[in-house]
Structure formats: C-alpha cells, structure tokens
C-alpha cells in the first residue's frame, strides 16, 4: 500500500498541500483573529492587524451583552440534534427496506424523495407559515425540529440506503438460515455493521440542520431562535462592526466546527453516498 | 376519572393564579440600529418597574421588515411590539393591523411630539405607532477639508450642480478621501432614499395624477445621470454595496468629504468615541436643483402593537415608557446627551443639556419641520411621501427601480436602459394592482 | 430472497417516510398551487379573487425571469465545474504521502461547517470589500485599483463564495473514492511505462466517475436553492446580475408580498426541479446501477 517516495518529494507535497489547506482555512482563521481586535483595528491593513495591534476580548463581551448566546446555542443544539434523531428513526426502516428488499420501483421512490428536496423553500413559506400559525407551532422548537427533519429526510434516507447496500446480503441470508427473527436480524447483525454509516449520516445532518438559515429565521421569533437568527442581528449594523461580526460568527460556527473536526474520521467514512464500490 | 378531573381543577387554579400574579412576557421585534440597541440595554429598568419581561428579536432592517410583515399580514401573533417605519405605519394602521395608540395616558403628552411626525404615523386621525426617533436628511461635510481647499459655503441652499463642483475639488483618493459617499446599495429604503429627494429636486415624480409611472421622464434621466456620474467620478469604490450603515462607517472613518444622509446619524458622527471626525464635521441642507421641494426626506422609526398581540396592555405600557420624555432623559443621562433619540419631541429640543451636546439640534429640528410629505414634488401628484410613495405597491416598485439604478451605477447597463426597465416594471405593477386600467 | 412476507414488511417500513414526505410535499404544494391562481397580496387584505393564469402570465413576462434562469444555470454550472475540478485536484494531492495529513485535511474541510450566512457576510465584508477588505488592502499595497467584486463581477463572486463552501465536500468524496483505488493496478501500469497523465486518464478518472456523479447530484440539489449567500451579499443585484430563480421567488413573495405570483414562481420552480431530477436520475441510473 505505502508507496515509496523520496523525502524531498514528500516535503514538497506537504508544503503545497499545506499552503492550499491554509488558503481554504484562512477565512475562518481570519475572523478568529479579527474577533480579538478592537473595531478600529479590525479594518486596518492585514499586515498591520497581524503585527501592529493589540488583542482584546471586548467584542465577545459586547456580543454577549446584546444577545443571549446560550439561549440561541441551546436552540441550535436541540433543533439540529432533535431533527436528526427523529429523521434517523423514520429513515432507518425505510433505507433498510430499500436496500435489502428492493422492488421495481425502489429507485424511482428514492429519486422522487430526493426531488422533494429541490423544492424552493421560499415558494412554500406562506403556506407553511399559515399552517404553523393554525397549529400554534410558530416560534416553537417542535415545529422547527419537524421542518428540518422533513427537509433533510431525503438526504438521510439516501445516505443510509447507499451505506446499507454495501452490507453483503449473504450475511443476512446466513442469519436468517439460523432462524433469526427480523428483529434480531436488525439488532444483532445489521446494526453493528451499520453503525459507522449511521454515525456519519447523523453528523452530516447535524451540520446541515445547524447551518439551515431560511426556515430557522422565518419561523421563529424569540423563544426558538437558533444561532442563525443570532447572526442576523449582526449582519449590517451601524458603524464599525467587523470585530463584533467576527466574534458573533466565531460563536455561531465554533461548536459545529469543533464537533466536525473531532468526528471527521467518522464523518468521512460514511460520506460516500455509494460513490465507492 | 376522578383523579383526572381533580388534576384539571388544580391546573385550572394554578393557571388562574398564574395569570393574576405572574407578569406578562412580551416579544419585541426591532432593528439593529444603535438607538434600538440602547433601548434594549435600558429596558431592564422597565422590566424591573413593571415585573414584565421582554424577549428581544433584533434583526437587520430588511430581514426585520420581511419577518414582521409576514407575521402581521398572516395574523401570526409572534410579536407583541414591532418596530416599523413611517412608510408602514399609516398603511398598516388603515388596514386594522395595528392597535390605535391614542390612549397612552395624559402623562404621555402627545402635544410634545412634533406634528409632522405624529401625522406621518397616523391614519384617519388615529395614531398607530409612536415615534422612537425621527429624521430628515441633510449634508454632512468635513469642515477641515473645506477650509483647506478654501471653499466657502453659500448662505442659501446650494444646487446639486454647485455640490458636484465642490465634491470635485475635494476628491483625493490618493490620500484616502473620496469626494462624496452616497448610498448605492439597492433597496427602496437604501439607495432610493437618496435618489427620491434627488429626483424631487430635479423636478421629477414617481406618478402623474392618473397613477401613470413617469420614471422614463427627462427629469429622472437628468437626476440619475447626475447621480451615476457623481458617484463614478468622486465616490468610493464598491459604492453599490454601500447603504446607510456602510457610508456612516466610511464617513466616521474620515474617508468621505461629503455625505447626504439621515440627520439621525449626527449623534453618531459627532460622538468622539465612535467617530474620528467628530470635531471636524459640519452640515448644511441637502442641495436643491430646479426646485427646493422635497429635497430632504422624512422618516421615523416607530413602535407599534399588532392587533394579533395577546398582551396589548403591557405592550402599551412599554411603548409609553420607551417613547416618553423621561426615556429621552434617561438616555441622555446614562449614554450621553448626544446619543438621545432625536427628532420626536419638542422637549428634547428645549433641553439645554441636549442643545449643548448636539450642535446639530436646531438644524435637525428645522429640517424635520420643513419636510412635508404632502407636498414634496414640483408638479402635483396623487400620493404623499418624500422619498417613498405611501401605497402598498411601492416597496416592490422601489426595490426594483433601486436594483436597476444600482446596475447602472455598477456600469452593467446605461441609465437609459435602467429607467426604461424601471418604467416597464412600474407600469406592470400598477396595471396588476388595478391603478391603470 | 425477497419473500412475500418480507416485501410486506418492507413496504411497512418504507411507508412512514413516504407518507411524511408525501404530506410534506402535497400539503404546501397544493396550497401553493391554489394560491398561484389567486390574486393574493399579503399587504393588500381583502378577498382574494380567482384570477386564472394571470399570475403565471406576470411571472413569465417578468423581465427578470430570463435572467434568473440563466443565472441559476451559471451558478449551478460554475460551482459544479470549480468544485469537481478543484476537488479532483485536491483529492489527488491529499492522496499523496505527506507529513501532517490530518491537520491539512482538517483545514481543507473547515469551510463545509461554516453557515452560509456567515460565509456570505465574511467574504463580503472582510475579503471582497474594496475599501476595508483584505483583497482591497492587498491591491492598494501593490498600487493597483482594488477590484469591486460585487459590482464588477457579481455572479462570479457569488460562485467563488459558494465554491469555497462546497469544495471540501467534493474533495472528501473524491478522496475516499481515490483511496479505494486498487494500488496494484496503478503500479502495474507504472511498470508498463504508462505516463502519469495516461494513468490518470485511463485508470483514475474512470474510477472516479461514480464519485463525480454523486458529487454532481448532491450538490445540484443544494445549489438549485442557493439563497442565503445572495441575500446577505448582493440582494440579487446589481440589477438582476445575481438573481437566481429562488431569489426571484423570494422577491415576488416576500419583498413584494405578492403571494399569488410567488406561488406561480414556486410551481414553475418545482416543475423545473423535477425536470432536473429526471435528468439526474438518468445520469445516476447509468452510473450507480449494479
């Protein structure tokens, strides 16, 4: 597996990849740096900001004073995790059935499910808003959990389906020969094999739900508003705002970024959508 | 079964006592302006005094407007207090979406509110929103740069042609100073707020007496050509992204020699802790051209209560507090008088402390009193409004025209094309809405 | 292996998802369809009379409609082009042995976790702003006229921002695919004297075809409804330069509050999305079967 390469070539690759990686990462790094600067310093030339300005946490203080970060944070956590768990509960049986008992129409059903995701949310906001009003779901976490589950369900099913399909059918066959019931088959045979795929699906969907900004902004007011609404109050305020915007951005993306980094191995393993045979 | 009904009784009891003793919880939607942020900061005082609590939804202006409109129009009931502008208040009031606010008590002193402001927020004689701050527009300029260039200000209102000449002399991008900063970001409340009065000054109007759009008229063409030339020659780069807030930051950072914009920004520009040009700035009237009518706009941010709110009494109490004389004083004392909410109350302008801290006070007062939404154009028109037209359809038309003009400013199309497109769009919308048969 | 019983069980297991999605699709869709035939403006209350095809007429003859269609195609196409090519190159590079691969991979995938709103705001203000942004400062320090991104190259600016967000996704999938490539086959080809280019062309690329298809499919689904990035940067302008179909529907239904016309636009967008879906289905069907 390991190809033999000269150290100089390896060093060269490292440098090139490192530079490219830094380029991709730079915007995130930059707002992190700016968030620790004063407003006046944050609009200076980059070199001056890096080497010629002091550090301060005043922007974080200003942001926290104005908006209750932890309330938004908890809403984001509840909404993204809730919608993912609920989504998995609905999707696992469906994906299992499609993968192991495929019918003639399985592919069509799958594609139809994906196509519901192409529906532009702005086009159906007013109908959904009216329904939510009548059900008393406006500005409630329950309502958002449901909506985000629905918009991500096709992706969850698709991911699980492609993952389940890679589990060899012979194993199930063997289990069935041994007289395992459907329930046992799922619990003892399938689940252990499917855990990495499910973990990866879960991670991806937490990320997607965390970052969803249209429904979370439009269906909430004060109680259920997650971090996307928190950011919306810093998008174009009066006066100099780069440092505060940076601080608010860091606060909004840090939790998911850190989660993503720690779990990137699990995320990557299942993130194939059947691309690898 | 018995247990269940006993439980019901208990819970009913609890909920009755709960509503009697526990205070209301209000949801308030507001814009992320510095005045509103101060209100948010001071509101715990009201919460402590009344025992009520406030949940804040602070959004950027466009998001706020869309969010609040959707909720009010669908009777969603998400908000108890909303922040709206002088454009929405009369329209929404007439549609019975807002609670009438004529009963805030004798202490409230309605007569202390400037009359044009009160009229601007009323429909059919009922006040539907109470003003938090009000503004007109005037020209901010850098005294130091004018002096250095030896430019003397005329006593009279200058014309836009004179203005362009001055701007040309001051334009010095090599030293980081642009001749003028004006709004370029598309939107009826952004670039159109500057363009509207400019068109008025050039003798143009949105509609003739039969509601036919007149955007392809020579007056509009002259005004927009002037605007595009002025900005391309003497404006900062990236002007199409600059709205009020961006220009405010640029001016406060000393990057602009002149800026025609809201009088309410004066508190910020003259505040040394926010602005690097606080002691170098002065102001004069917004220029005129063929007419001096409608050359300064009129706008107010106001608080209102949707009829769908379930806590109207508590909400009224907050409104009376946040727009009272006492509140103005509270801000003056805790945040510095220069930051007091301007443009709403005579008492503010009679207050020595305010007049001393705010050198612009008298000019602002005069501009607001002079702005007359009912007579803002050279020719007679069927509508009211200086920089907007007070009909529901205007938002859509204003936004579209704003986009077209910003495309002309970006050089993606000519002024003629932009105005022809705008005219076509306005004709469509007015036909669709049944104004044009 | 599929018995009758297991088929019935399977149907039972799929049905919650199908029913939910069906409900999610049909309820708002039928309301949207219904609204699209009404004169229904949120800010003009009153009865909402039935007006037949009028809303469709107004939407189709909207001067922005054609631009929005073209922009949607350019946006989706542009981002796909950049992310597929860029992602392939990144994947090839990251597949090479190097020091600190874990760290580098973490840096490369970071943009994927950033909220679209945040990335739009950050690029607009901290990078592309010609006066205070980094690119502006760089250009000035080199004595050049700073590029005014959102007025000179508005659509390309949006494409670049969105590509930044999606490049990690493409890279990850393509990298995983690349790592599953049979090394012996490659080595054999190398021994036979095949150049790097021909190894890439004849062995790696065919192996990646499937992954590329998946990248295109998944990204198209998300890219068709790009919205937040446009909203916080250009508001669809200048003019209609960055108005895509989603944004145009937003303008009709939530800026002009014309729910009738917005609904008509929504119906049109759904039809177009289904056409794209059928198209993708064929493509995927060919590549993903077996």
TrEMBL record, chain A:
Membrane topology recorded in Swiss-Prot or TrEMBL: Multi-pass membrane protein
Membrane-traversing stretches: 12-33, 73-97, 109-132, 144-164, 185-208, 214-234, 241-262
Gene3D superfamilies reported in the protein's UniProt record: MetI-like
Keywords from the named record: Cell membrane, Membrane, Transmembrane, Transmembrane helix, Transport
Limits of the ABC transmembrane type-1 domain: 73-263
Superkingdom, taxonomy of origin: Bacteria
GO biological process annotation, one example: transmembrane transport
Pfam families: BPD_transp_1
Compartments in which it is found: Cell membrane
Principal location class: membrane
GO cellular component: plasma membrane
Family note: Belongs to the binding-protein-dependent transport system permease family.
Record's protein name: Mannitol ABC transporter permease
TrEMBL record, chain B:
Family: Belongs to the bacterial solute-binding protein 1 family.
UniProtKB keywords: Signal
Record's GO cellular component terms: periplasmic space
Chief localization: periplasm
Protein name as annotated: Sugar ABC transporter substrate-binding protein
The keyword Kinase belongs to this UniProt entry's keyword annotation: no
InterPro entries according to UniProt: Bact_solute-bd_prot1, SBP
Signal peptide: 1-20
Location(s) in or outside the cell: Periplasm
CDD domains per UniProt: PBP2_TMBP_like (cd13585)
From TrEMBL, chain C:
Any GO BP: transmembrane transport
Cell location: Cell membrane
An annotated GO cellular component: plasma membrane
Record-annotated membrane-spanning stretches: 12-37, 68-94, 106-123, 153-175, 208-228, 259-281
SUPFAM superfamilies reported for this sequence: MetI-like
UniProt record similarity statement: Belongs to the binding-protein-dependent transport system permease family.
Name listed for the protein in its UniProt record: Sugar ABC transporter permease
Organism from which the protein derives: Marinibacterium profundimaris
């Amino acid at each position: 597996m390991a190809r033999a390469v000269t150290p100089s070539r390896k060093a060269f690759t490292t440098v090139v990849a490192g530079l490219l990686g830094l380029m991709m990462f730079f915007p995130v790094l930059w707002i992190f740096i700016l968030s620790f600067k004063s407003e006046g310093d944050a609009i200076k030339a980059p070199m001056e900001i890096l080497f010629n300005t002091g550090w301060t946490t005043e922007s974080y203080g200003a942001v926290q004073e104005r908006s209750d970060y932890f309330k938004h944070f908890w809403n984001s956590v509840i909404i993204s995790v809730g919608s993912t768990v609920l989504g998995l509960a609905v999707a696992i049986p469906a994906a299992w059935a499609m993968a192991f008992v495929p019918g003639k129409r399985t592919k069509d059903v799958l594609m139809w499910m994906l196509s519901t995701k192409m529906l532009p949310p702005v086009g159906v906001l007013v109908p959904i808003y009216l329904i939510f009003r009548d059900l008393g779901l406006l500005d409630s976490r329950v309502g958002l959990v449901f909506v985000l589950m629905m918009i991500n369900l096709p992706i969850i099913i698709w991911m699980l389906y492609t993952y389940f399909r890679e589990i060899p059918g012979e194993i199930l066959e063997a289990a069935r020969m041994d007289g395992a019931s459907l329930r046992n088959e799922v619990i003892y045979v399938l689940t252990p094999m499917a855990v990495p795929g499910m973990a990866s699906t879960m991670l991806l969907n937490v990320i997607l739900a965390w970052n969803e900004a249209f429904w979370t902004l439009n269906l909430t007011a004060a109680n259920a508003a997650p971090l996307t609404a928190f950011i919306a109050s810093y998008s174009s305020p009066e006066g100099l705002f780069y440092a505060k915007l940076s601080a608010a951005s860091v606060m909004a993306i840090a939790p998911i970024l850190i989660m993503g980094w720690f779990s990137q191995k699990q995320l990557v393993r299942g993130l194939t959508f059947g691309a690898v045979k | 079964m018995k247990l269940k009904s006993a439980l019901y009784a208990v819970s009913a009891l609890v909920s009755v006592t709960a509503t009697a003793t526990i205070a209301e919880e209000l949801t308030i939607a507001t814009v992320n302006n510095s005045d509103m942020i101060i209100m948010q900061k001071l509101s715990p005082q009201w919460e402590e005094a009344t025992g009520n609590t406030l949940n804040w939804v602070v959004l950027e202006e466009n998001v706020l407007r869309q969010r609040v409109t959707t909720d009010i129009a669908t009777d969603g009931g998400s908000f108890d207090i909303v922040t709206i502008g002088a454009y929405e208040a009369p329209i929404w009031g007439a549609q019975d979406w807002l609670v009438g606010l004529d009963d805030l008590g004798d202490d409230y002193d309605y007569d202390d509110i400037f009359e044009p402001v009160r009229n601007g927020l009323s429909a059919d004689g009922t006040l539907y929103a109470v003003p938090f701050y009000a503004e007109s527009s005037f020209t901010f300029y850098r005294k130091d740069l004018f002096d250095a260039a030896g430019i003397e200000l005329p006593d009279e209102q200058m014309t836009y042609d004179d203005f362009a000449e001055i701007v040309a002399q001051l334009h010095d991008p090599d030293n980081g100073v642009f001749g003028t900063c004006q709004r370029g970001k598309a939107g009826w409340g952004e670039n159109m707020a500057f363009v509207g009065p400019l068109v008025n000054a050039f003798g143009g109007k949105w509609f003739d007496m039969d509601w036919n759009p007149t955007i392809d008229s020579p007056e509009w063409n002259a005004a927009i050509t002037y605007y595009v030339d002025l900005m391309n020659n003497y404006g900062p780069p990236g002007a199409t992204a600059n709205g009020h807030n961006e220009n405010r930051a640029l001016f406060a950072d000393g990057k602009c020699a002149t800026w025609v914009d809201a009088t309410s920004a004066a508190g910020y520009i003259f505040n040394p802790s926010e602005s690097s040009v606080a002691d170098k700035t002065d102001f004069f009237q917004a220029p005129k051209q063929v007419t001096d009518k409608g050359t300064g706009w009129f706008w107010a941010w106001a608080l209102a209560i949707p009829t769908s709110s379930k806590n109207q009494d508590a909400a009224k109490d907050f409104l009376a507090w946040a727009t009272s004389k006492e509140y103005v004083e509270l801000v003056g004392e805790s945040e510095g008088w220069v930051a007091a909410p301007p443009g709403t109350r005579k008492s503010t302008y009679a207050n020595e402390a305010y007049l001393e801290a705010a050198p612009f006070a008298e000019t602002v007062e005069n501009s607001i009193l002079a702005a007359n939404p009912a007579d803002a154009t050279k020719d007679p028109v069927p509508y009211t409004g200086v920089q907007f037209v007070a009909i529901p359809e205007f938002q859509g038309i204003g936004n579209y025209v704003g986009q077209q003009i910003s495309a002309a400013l970006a050089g993606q199309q000519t002024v003629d094309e932009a105005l022809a497109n705008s005219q076509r769009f306005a004709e469509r919308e007015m036909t669709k809405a049944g104004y044009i048969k | 292996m599929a018995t009758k019983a297991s088929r019935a069980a399977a149907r039972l297991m799929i049905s919650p998802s199908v029913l939910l999605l069906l409900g999610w699709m049909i309820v708002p869709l039928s309301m949207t369809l219904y609204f699209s035939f009404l004169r229904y403006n949120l800010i003009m209350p009153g009865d909402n009379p039935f007006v037949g095809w009028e809303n469709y007429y107004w939407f189709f003859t909207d001067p922005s409609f054609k631009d929005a269609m073209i922009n949607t195609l350019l946006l989706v196409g542009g981002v796909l082009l950049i992310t597929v090519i860029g992602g392939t190159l990144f994947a090839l590079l990251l597949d090479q042995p190097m020091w600190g691969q874990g760290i580098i991979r973490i840096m490369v995938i970071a943009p994927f976790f950033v909220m679209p709103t945040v990335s739009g705001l950050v690029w607009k203000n901290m990078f592309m702003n010609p006066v205070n942004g980094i690119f502006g400062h760089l250009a000035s320090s080199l004595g050049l006229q700073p590029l005014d991104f959102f007025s000179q190259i508005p659509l390309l600016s949006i494409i670049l921002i969105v590509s930044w967000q999606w490049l990690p996704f493409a890279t990850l999938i393509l990298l995983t695919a690349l790592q599953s490539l049979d090394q012996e086959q490659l080595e054999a080809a190398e021994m036979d004297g095949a150049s790097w280019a021909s190894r890439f062309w004849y062995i790696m690329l065919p192996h990646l075809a499937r992954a590329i298809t998946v990248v295109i499919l998944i990204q198209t689904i998300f890219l068709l409804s790009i919205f937040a990035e446009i909203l916080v940067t250009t508001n669809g302008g200048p003019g209609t330069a960055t108005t895509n179909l989603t944004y145009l529907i937003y303008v009709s239904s939530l800026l002009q509050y014309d729910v009738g016309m917005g609904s008509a636009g929504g119906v049109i967008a759904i039809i177009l999305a289904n056409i794209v879906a059928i198209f993708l289905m064929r493509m995927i069907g060919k590549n993903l079967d077996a």
